Amino acid sequence: MSNSSAFLLRDILIRNDQLFPNNTAMFDGDVAITYRELFRRINRARAVLGYLGIRPGDRVGILMENNAAYIELLLAVAHMGSIAVPLNTRLTADELQFILNDAEASLLITSSAFKHLAEATYARLSSVTNGLIVDSDTPEGQFQSYKVVQAETEAAPKTLGGIGELSEDSTAILVYTSGTTGSPKGCMTTQRSWIGNSLNMAIAFSLSTEDRYLALLPFFHVGGLGALFAQLHAGGTVIPMAKYSATGVVQMIEKYRISVAFLVPPMVQQVLTLESREQYDLNSLRIVIGAAGFEPPWVSARVEDDLHAKFYGIYGQTESGNIVASATRNAIASSPSTYGRELPAFRVRIVDDSDEEVPVGSPGELTLRGPSVMSGYWRREEATRKALRGDWLHTGDIFVRHPDGTLEMVDRKTYIIKTGGENVYPAEVEHVLAAHPSVADVCVIGIPDPVWGETVKACIVLRLGHAPSRSELVSWCREHVAAYKAPRYIEWVEEIPRSHSGKPLKDVLKARPTHSTQGIAHLE
Fold it and tell me: I need a surface site. Which of 5, 253, 299, 311 has the fewest CB within 10 A?
C-alpha cells in the first residue's frame, strides 16, 4: 500500500533535483555528474530495466565494481520498486548461483571486469532470464549491452520502468550475509532502512552538501551502500573507487578533494604508513571512518595528528542496516577495546539468554531497535523470528555496557570471524573442508592478526593413511568459497575437543599457540 507521508529512496533524488540541480552528485571517471543529470540517467536506466521486463518486486542481481553505472542502476531499481541484490565480487560461481537462485532474481547485471565469473554463474541459474553488461558496445554471450538497449529505448516511444506502490516497509535491497549454518541469508532492508541509516549517519558525522565521499567500500557491503545513500541524502558528492590501493586512496583524496573516507582494516594503517603519503595534499580530508575494536590505538591518534581528520571507530552489521555505534579518538585512547556509544536513532539493550536486561557492567547479547534494522531474512521465517524476537534485533554479539554509557564487545556469540572488513562464518568453511577426502574432522576458528584484525585457522584431523599438504587443502577451499574465507593457518590435530553434547570447544583451540610452520603462503 502507498503511504503519502513516507519519504522513500526515490524522494532523495526528486528532492535534490529540485534543491541542488547543479550540485555535483557523483563523478563518472573524470566527468562531474550533477543531480539534474543523475536524475535523467536514473530515468534512462528505468527505461532499460522496463524494456527488459523488470517490474516492481522483481529481484535484480548486480555483479560489478563500484562505478557510476552501479549507482544509477541501484537508484533506478529502488525508484521502480524492484529489489536490488548486490553480489559480492569475491565469491565463486557456486556461491553466486546459490544467492541468485535463492532470491529468484530475474536479471543479472555485470561489467567486463566480472564477465567470466558472471558467465560461469549464469550457466547454472534457474530463475535469471536475462543478462546485461554495462560497459560494452556489443552484446556478449548471454549478456545484452546496456548501451545498445539504451539506444533502443531512446529511439522507441519512451516507456519508463513501472513504478510500484511503495511504502516505507517495502523491501529495497536484499543484502546477503552468511548464517552460522553456512547458508547465505538475504537481509531484507527496506526503504525505511536506508532513509533511517542516512539520517543516523548525517547526524553522527555531520554530512552536508559540501562533503565529497570516497566510495571505496564495495556496494555489495551494507557499509558501502549505507555511506553511499547517506552522502546522496545529504546532497553531497560521491566519488566511486573500483579497486583499493593505499597509493590510489591518497591520489583520489588529492585529485577530488575528498572530505569523507570509510576504510576498513588494514586500509587505514596502510595509508598512514605509506612512504609517499607526504607527497600528496590531503588537507581536504575531514573524517576517516574505521573499525572499532580492531585498530590499535595509534591509528586513531595518527589519523588526527598526521592527517588532521577526525577518526570514528564504528561497529555495525548487515542486519542492523549499517553502523550501530561509533567511538572517538579520546574514547579509544581511554579504552582501546571500546565501541563507543550507539548512534542517535538506536535503542540498545544488553540481555541474557532469557532476553532479560542485565545490569550495567555485566556481559550479555547486544539487542537493538532502530529505523535501519532489517525487516527479516528473505523467505526464512524461523530465522527471522529468532533474530527479531520480542521486536528487538538480536545481534549474536556479546557486549558490556559500562557506567559511562559506552559499549564494549566481549565475544561473538556465533563465532563470526572478521578479517580485513569481511565476515567469515566458520561453519561454511568447515563444510567445505569436511568434504575433502582426506579430512576426518575439522574445526575453524579466528585468531588475532596484526594486519587483518583476525585471520582464519583450521584445526584438522586427517583420515588414516592420508597426508595432503596444507596448500592442497587451501586450494580445495578456494574452489568452493571466496579466497578470504580459506584458512591461512592449518594445524594437524589428533582430535577436536568437544563438549558432552558434541559441540566443538573452540575456546580450547583458540588458546593453543599458532606457529608460523602452520601458515600457508598466500595463493594467487
Answer: 5
